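Dear colleague,

As promised, here are the two records you asked about, laid out in our usual form so they can be pasted straight into your sheet.

NAME FIELD: protein one
SEQUENCE, THEN STRUCTURE:
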Amino acid sequence: MPLPLRLAAITSLVALAVPALAQGVPELADLVGARAAGAETQMEARGYRLAGGSTVRDMKFTFWWNDRKRACVSVSTVEGRYASIQPVPAGTCDGAQAGPQPVPQTPPPSDQDAGSLVLVCYGAGTRPSVTTAPDYKWNADRHKWEWSSRLESSTQGFSSDVQLELYGDHGRIHLGPSLVPPIHSGGSNGWWDLDALSVTPTQITGSYRLNGMNKPKFTIDRRTGRIDIRAMTNFAGQCDIGNWANGTRRF
């Protein structure tokens, strides 16, 4: 492709991508795309303090707590720049919270006892996408090339969270919006029941049904905390145990 067309294509794709990345926490949207070093200073200036973090593939996740807002956010960093800023459950920033904690308005279901296993996972993935790319087409009537556009199949990166609740031989999974296809069925408030669930001392496997054609399978390594979901939309991340049990191992 000639250089002018390549530059135009890149500009077009960037313009399409920026609004998607900017979604999440409106007051911090201007930091998406900023260099991490300077953005961290801005986070602190706006009342946030670092509460922890993890690394998945080439993406780094940090969690920030705001005492005034009683809110926790997840920041993903790629190649030294903030890629996305998303709100996450307050429990993710447990280590940074100070002062009296608000009483939950809705208690957890009675079956979420200390013997259950609740996992909160954060990571990144890819999904099929369609983008508009600039192009030139020959106009035989006017005998010249004219500007046009075309649709191209591609993949889109995203960051998301996944939550799992396991109770003996059954359980359910909660998916972030990026992991839910436009056409889906069977879910309840973002939760899907697990099928073929297998829990061993070293591994957790299972599947769930989003629709007739899309039945993702997941694997969790209990030694490392890594989760992998394989389907039309792929996802890999890191899991930590929830607050329902106080075990000494990762989970």
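NAME FIELD: protein two
SEQUENCE, THEN STRUCTURE:
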Amino acid sequence: MKEDNDVSRIFLLNPDPRLLDEAHRAGVQVRSARVEAHDESVLRPLLKEAAAAGLFVNPARALRLLADPDAVQRLVRDNRLSPDAGAVSGAPRLTVETLSVHGMHQTVGITARMPYGLLHPAPLTEDTAAEVRAVVTALLDLTGYQYGPAHTGVTLTRQGPVITGCRAGLADEPVPELLKVAGGFDLAAGAVRVLAGKLVEAARPCRFAAAAELSRPWRLGAGEVGTVPDVRVVSTSGSRGPGHFVVHADSPEGAAQRVTSLSALVAGEAS
């Protein structure tokens, strides 16, 4: 059992700047290291030292597996976590965000890839969502992952969910922004919390949030886009990818309509 004063300290391997920023904002002390995650012999002494200092750390094997896409696929195949669905081109694709603490994995968001961009939450039946959560949780259990965020790709087929990839860490934007707009859940804050050994309570989405890329040339500037009704986030292109905007709506259909209308307004596309 960790002492109470240890919960304000976390260990980050190859730290994401967003987690560093959130830890600083929350007053959480960070111990970090930058090493090659594919080499367990390099990871083990660092993790052992951090654990001896009272920090929560993952097993070296888990970090090595999740840093290797081929190893993830072998684990999925060898343990029959996904059906042999053959070609899955054109099948619905999802991204699944989880937060793990003490080896317990909580799904905090399932996002759908749409023709226009991304939609959160993914419009799934309860049974399908449960199947997706179960297969992702089973994979994380097999890796031995204990603490922190993970980002998993899943394709839906008639035979069931197929895992297409999984890695430790936060999803790239705009997925975290979608979770915040749809239900008020801060993915980075939740990640810092579980890395400190604390449980999180995910907010249930109360609306839909959709995101689409802002492709140049623009008719409107980013500042002008942000003043359009129903637009909640505008981000210009940067190191983490192209620019995008996020809107909210009461239904998937409403979200698609707003994205289409805004894309036409911003870029002058035909609606």
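A couple of things worth noting about protein two: The chain has two domains: 4-206, 207-271. Residues 131 and 203 are 20 Å apart (CA to CA).

Best,
R.
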